[in-house]
């Protein structure tokens, strides 16, 4: 039986991709940024994705997707804007999100 997983601050789904390769079954993902939600949904269509600010997510939105024996792992992605080469990196040295 696969380990179960909830993916918080999921971004486009990189953590889910790695955990899926390791045998995990992601049940729920929570992400605020619409473009990330769209990418996640395209790459992981079996995962229930909640497109919302995590501070507003309720148990009623998550619990229907949780197995009776619970969840084995909850992960939280990190903001990656300061590490990405896609944006303007000249200010990344001074960006507090990297700490």
Strand count: 4
Structural class: alpha/beta
CATH topology label: Rossmann fold
The pLDDT mean sits at 88
- Low-confidence spans: none
Task: State the order of secondary-structure elements, H for helix, E for strand.
Answer: EHEHEHE
Strand content: 15-25%
What's the assembly state of these chains? single chain
Distance between the termini: 37 Å
State the domain count: 1
The level-1 CATH class: Alpha Beta
> Architecture, CATH level 2?
3-Layer(aba) Sandwich
Based on CA inertia axes, which overall geometry fits? Answer: globular
Let me know the CATH homologous superfamily: Vaccinia Virus protein VP39
Order of strands side by side in the largest beta sheet? 3-2-1-4
**Computed CA radius of gyration, to the nearest angstrom:** 15 Å
Instruction: Summarize the main sheet.
Output: 4 strands, parallel
What is the share of helical residues? 10-25%
Total count of helical runs of at least 4 residues: 3
Question: Can you walk me through this structure?
Answer:
The chain has one domain (3-98): Vaccinia Virus protein VP39 (Rossmann fold, 3-Layer(aba) Sandwich), CATH 3.40.50.150. With 99 residues, it is an alpha/beta fold. It is 22% helix and 22% strand. It is globular, with a radius of gyration of 15 Å. The relative contact order is 0.22. Strands 3-2-1-4 form a 4-stranded parallel sheet. The longest helix is centred in the middle third of the chain and has 10 residues, at 34-43.
């Amino acid at each position: 039986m696969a380990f179960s997983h909830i993916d918080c601050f999921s971004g486009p789904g990189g953590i889910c991709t790695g955990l899926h390769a390791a045998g995990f079954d992601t049940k729920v993902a929570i992400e605020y940024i619409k473009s990330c939600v769209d990418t996640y949904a395209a790459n992981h269509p079996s995962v229930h994705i909640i497109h919302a600010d995590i501070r507003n997510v309720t148990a009623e939105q998550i619990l229907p997707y949780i197995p009776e024996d619970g969840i084995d792992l909850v992960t939280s992605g990190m903001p990656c804007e300061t590490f990405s080469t896609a944006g303007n990196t000249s200010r990344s040295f001074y960006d507090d999100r990297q700490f």
